[in-house]
Amino acid sequence: MSFLIRVQLPDRPGTLGAVASALGEIGADILSVDVVERGAGLAIDDLVVELPSGRLPDVLITAAESIEGVEVDAVRPYAGVLDTHRELELVEEVAEDPKHGLEVFTEGVPKIIRAGWAVVVSWDGSAVHRLTSSSAAPETRLETPPWLPLARATVLDGEDDWVPETWQELGTELAATPLGKPDRVLLVGRPGGPMFRAAEVARLAHLAGIVSVVLY
User: Fold this and answer.
1) Which residues contact 209 (CB under 8 A, 6 or more apart)?
2) 3-class secondary-structure state, position 55
3) Is the separation of the CB atoms in 45 and 36 below 8 Å?
4) By C-alpha distance, which of 40, 39, 209, 57 is closest to 48?
5) Which residues pair with 177 in a beta bridge?
6) What pLDDT, in 10s, does the model give residues 21-79?
7) Is 138 exposed, middle or buried (0-12, 13-18, 19+ CB in 10 A)?
8) Which residues are paired to 134 by β-bridges?
9) Which ranges does the record mark as transmembrane (predicted)?
10) Is 190 helix (H, G, I), strand (E, B) or coil?
11) What is the mean pLDDT of residues 115-141?
12) Secondary structure letter of residue 141 according to DSSP
């Protein structure tokens, strides 16, 4: 099985290599590494690793945290290896088929920012309308989220009253960004985490801004 493991580690030469070695000793195969955020002497990295059949994901935490200064933020099952630098490719796909561009964009976003799902909703002042959603998105409809209309990209509290109960039960981390205007919003979810970092939200906003220009 493949797992996504998010780690905080000292931003100094050799630390990531030491983590890789520790994971290798338990039979884990690192498939990809993505730098999520850096600053204040720390780095946040996402590692997609494959574990031999029968091994429990807990061993990943034990191995990674055996390296001094390393902390594991989250571990969750992960389907496949994704290219985290597909922004331009996705924009090109949207531009090539603008009639279905919103659907193409919504399906592609989770693969880029390692989310579980994405939906695009609009707000007419009294009700929320789902415009499109990725294949893995929950069918649960939103009632009246207090953050609509949305002025800027932000992390949302997954335990607020507006959040559907099923999302809360799964520990879904949420982030949202306007798509061209405040009453049209891209909402992304990560069931089970990890939480969205500031750099990821900025990346999401940047991508949404580009695509909104292409589509609208």
Assistant:
1) none
2) coil
3) yes
4) 57
5) 186
6) 999 999 999 888 888 898 889 999 999 899 988 888 899 999 999 999 999 998 988 76
7) middle
8) none
9) none
10) strand
11) 94
12) P
Task: Using alpha carbons, select from 157, 144, 148 the residue that is nearest to residue 184.
Answer: 148
Per-chain mean pLDDT for the chain: 91
As a whole number of angstroms, the distance between CA 70 and CA 73 comes to: 10
Residue the block writes with tokens 């589509």: 215
Q: Which of 137, 142, 131 is nearest to 101 (CA)?
A: 131
Token output for 148: 């609509």
Strands (E), the chain: 2-10, 29-39, 42-50, 71-77, 117-123, 128-133, 154-156, 173-181, 184-190
CA separation for the pair 184, 196 (Å, rounded): 20
Please say whether the dihedral angle defined by the alpha carbons of residues 117, 199, 162 and 75, taken in this order, is positive or negative: positive
* Single-letter amino acid code for the residue at 20: A
